[in-house]
Each structure stands twice: as C-alpha cells, then as structure tokens.
C-alpha cells in the first residue's frame, strides 16, 4: 500500500517525465495520506490502443493519462480529494504540452478491498 497505477497513451510518452512524476507523487502520498515512502509502489503502463470519441485513434491528437491510487481504508473523503487534486496538478507539471495534442488526464483515489493482501520476498 499504496498501490498506484499510471496508464498513458501515445503521444504523451515523449513528454512525460516519469521519474520526476513518480517521485513527486510518492512525496504527495506520504504527506497527504500519511503513507510510508517504502510502501509507495507505482506501475506505469503504456496503452497504444486508446480511443477518444470519434477521433481517428492513429492521428495522435489526443493523449490519455489515468492515475489510480489504491489505499487501505481509513482516509477521509477530504484526504482522498486532496490527493486526487495534487495528482492532477503533478500531471500538469510533469507532462509537457505538445503541439496539436489535447491531454485528457484523470485521477482517482480508491480504497483497497478488504481482501487485499501482499507479500515481499
């Protein structure tokens, strides 16, 4: 915990400072949600098959980025909202604008299910 997933589509790859973003996001999760730094884990996945509305998905005019943060239960709605807003601000900071590309970014903070378990080796 927290379990963070970043899904992004082309063409945002070249404009996305992944290292800077994940470091800043981990710092925000520690500060806002009282997580431990060593507990922050982020998986970044590229999706080449995303579509936006009726646009030709191969024209590269739309970039999609979605961040999902899973936390153990117990955070208030205010804390989850602050973390979501901080995540969106960081996306704006760490993804450079690209000519002719509209960035569609979203974020959510959700509670991990009671069945959540993990192990470290």
UniProtKB/TrEMBL annotation:
GO molecular function term, any single one: 5-carboxymethyl-2-hydroxymuconate delta-isomerase activity
Record's keyword terms, sorted: Isomerase
Keyword Transferase attributed: no
Keyword Protein biosynthesis: no
InterPro entries for this protein: 5-COMe_2-OHmuconate_Isoase (IPR004220), Tautomerase/MIF_sf (IPR014347)
Gene3D superfamilies according to UniProt: Macrophage Migration Inhibitory Factor
SUPFAM superfamilies named in the record: Tautomerase/MIF
Domain of life, source organism: Bacteria
Protein name: 5-carboxymethyl-2-hydroxymuconate isomerase
């Amino acid at each position: 915990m927290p379990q963070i997933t970043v899904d992004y589509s082309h063409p945002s790859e070249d404009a996305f400072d992944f290292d800077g973003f994940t470091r800043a996001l981990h710092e925000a999760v520690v500060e806002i949600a009282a997580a431990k730094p060593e507990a922050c884990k982020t998986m970044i996945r590229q999706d080449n098959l995303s579509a936006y509305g009726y646009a030709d998905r191969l024209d590269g005019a739309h970039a999609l980025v979605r961040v999902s943060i899973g936390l153990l239960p117990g955070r208030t709605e205010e804390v989850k909202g602050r973390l979501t807003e901080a995540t969106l601000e960081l996306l704006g900071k760490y993804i450079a604008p690209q000519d002719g590309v509209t960035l569609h970014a979203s974020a959510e903070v959700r509670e991990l299910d009671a069945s959540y378990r993990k192990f470290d080796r």
